[in-house]
Amino acid sequence: MPVNSQIGSRSEEIVHFAGVRLRVTGSGNLDLQFLSLDSVDTQTLAAIPMSSTNAREPTRLANFISQRGQLKISTNVIDETFKINRIILFVKPIWSQYPG
């Protein structure tokens, strides 16, 4: 499930993806990966073990810098399921444009 993220209205802005917090239930492990434009750069985050009930929202830290980014959320075993009720991306602009 890719989620495109762009801060502000300027497409030249470079942003820092610092992490993600999810309210997720399901079975199996949830795999998370940040991807840049055309998937040139990637960062795989630690998997989230899921259960049918959850008393907390797990946070996974990242250190991913890109002009735009996608968050790829998946499972890789047959019959694993997940339901996401909430996603919080921790993103901060760090540069307004590429150095000229």
Q: What report would you give on this structure?
A:
The termini are far apart. The chain has one domain. The protein is mostly beta strands and 100 residues long. It is elongated and about 50 Å long. It contains no helices and seven strands. Helix content is 0%, strand content 59%.
Write the layout of secondary structure elements.
Elements: E1 4-5, E2 14-35, E3 42-44, E4 48-50, E5 59-66, E6 69-74, E7 81-95
Antiparallel strand pairs: 1-6, 2-3, 2-4, 2-5, 2-6, 2-7
Through-space gap between termini = 34 Å
Helix and strand string, N-terminal first? EEEEEEE
Number of domains: 1
Shape: elongated
Summarize model confidence as the mean pLDDT: 87
Q: Helix amount, in percent? A: under 10%
Oligomer: single chain
| Overall number of strands | 7
Count of DSSP H/I helices: 0
Structural class: mainly beta
As a percent range, the share of strand residues is: over 45%
Rg on CA atoms, Å: 15 Å
Low-confidence stretches: 5-9
Largest sheet: 7 strands, antiparallel
What characteristics describe this protein?
single chain, 100 residues, mainly beta, seven-stranded antiparallel β-sheet, 59% strand, elongated
Give a brief outline of the structure.
The protein is mainly β and 100 residues long.
